[in-house]
UniProtKB/TrEMBL annotation:
Transmembrane segments: none annotated. Its EC number is 6.3.1.5. This is NH(3)-dependent NAD(+) synthetase. It comes from Rhizobium terricola. GO terms for molecular function: ATP binding; glutaminase activity; metal ion binding; NAD+ synthase (glutamine-hydrolyzing) activity; NAD+ synthase activity. Residues 1-25 are annotated as: Disordered. The gene is nadE.
């Protein structure tokens, strides 16, 4: 992380390259920056005189300048995040269903792949992606191409919401369903790691790390299946999860195609409804369900903000200041998840 730069308030107001005096007023020339949370303006008591046609105004501080600067920088960063995550201003479920189905079908055909592989969890994200995948495969077969959709159940032992997962599968109607219990492999890996390096885990939550192993084990299984049939692995990442970094590195964050990319959570739900998903599954409380000690823990408990707050942020709508700051802080803290591995320049 870069060091904080703390210019003297006089130099900030009068000599900073982003400021200039004109006809007795202070104007700010916007400068694009991505160092939102690394910027701090430490204003000490001082006096600044502004001349205007209405007289001479004595200010004891430059608070109003710092507030203006902060708002401009925050707005600039906010817009950059929305643009980077590909969130559109407008949304039409019918048009998006067609565009994303066509994307999957066309990419399958162009890459000469014969299958799509997707883990079905019981939540709305995998349900929506599965409906798009099966529709795309059906379209390809209609063009005379060989294609299939393989839906994969990947429970860790007995899943608490297994009934929801089965109803999701029934709604999708996949060409093939494969079930792989990841518990033996995940537990064996955890035991091996702790067996030879147990001292490294004495001060950490083992259940948290086991959760990440579960996510990565699921991706290992999906890629094994995809490799056997020359298939593509579908990821369920969307803009709301990407914003908050709510995925496991090289686990559910690994995939070949992301048909839900750029969608807020409410738009994923709208798309699912348009595609005919059961309404109770569409509005089911979202959960990653990775922690054995807290099964079905809601995503929003982890975030500390609601999906409505996250979606409003991504759609450029006003939200409360505490939620806004929480989202920005989480986005910065999880930047490494959205970046490619670093290499020497």
């Amino acid at each position: 992380m870069d060091d904080l730069h703390e210019p003297h308030p006089h130099s900030l107001a009068r000599r900073h390259r982003g400021w200039k005096r004109s006809h007795g007023k202070v104007r700010y020339r916007q400068r694009r920056t991505s160092r939102l949370l690394r910027l701090r303006v430490d204003l000490q008591p001082c006096k600044f005189t502004r001349q205007s046609g209405f007289g001479r105004l004595q200010l004891s501080r430059l608070v109003w300048i710092s507030q203006l600067l902060w708002r401009i920088v925050v707005r600039d960063q906010h817009l950059q995040i929305i643009e980077a995550l590909g969130v559109a201003k407008e949304f039409d479920a019918s048009a998006e269903a067609e565009r994303r189905t066509a994307f999957l079908a066309d990419y399958m055909q162009a890459s000469s792949c014969g299958a799509l592989v997707l883990g079905i969890s019981g939540g709305v994200d995998s349900l929506t992606a599965g409906l798009l995948a099966q529709t795309a495969v059906n379209r390809l077969r209609g063009r005379g191409h060989k294609a299939e959709f393989i839906a994969v159940r990947l429970p860790y032992g007995t899943q608490a919401d297994e009934a929801d997962a089965q109803r999701g599968l029934a709604s999708i109607g996949p060409d093939r369903v494969v079930t792989i219990d990841i518990k033996p492999a995940a537990d064996a890996m955890m035991a091996e790691v702790c067996g030879d390096a147990g001292d490294l885990f004495e001060t950490v939550r083992l259940d948290f790390h086991l959760g990440n192993i579960k996510a990565r084990q699921r991706m290992i299984a999906q890629y094994a299946l995809a490799g056997a049939v020359r298939g593509l692995v579908i990821g369920t990442d969307h803009a709301a999860e990407a914003l908050m970094g709510f995925f496991t590195k090289f686990g559910d964050g690994a995939a070949d195609v992301l048909p839900l990319s750029g969608l807020t959570k409410r738009r994923v739900r709208a798309l699912a409804e348009y595609l005919g998903a059961p309404r109770d599954l569409v509005f089911k409380v979202p959960t990653a369900d990775l922690e054995s000690d807290a099964p079905l823990r809601p995503d929003e408990d982890v975030y500390g903000v609601t999906y409505d707050d996250i979606d409003d942020f991504l759609e450029g709508k006003p939200i409360g200041e505490p939620a806004f700051q929480r989202i920005l802080a989480t986005h910065v803290a999880t930047a490494h998840k959205r970046a490619l591995p670093l290499s020497p320049q």
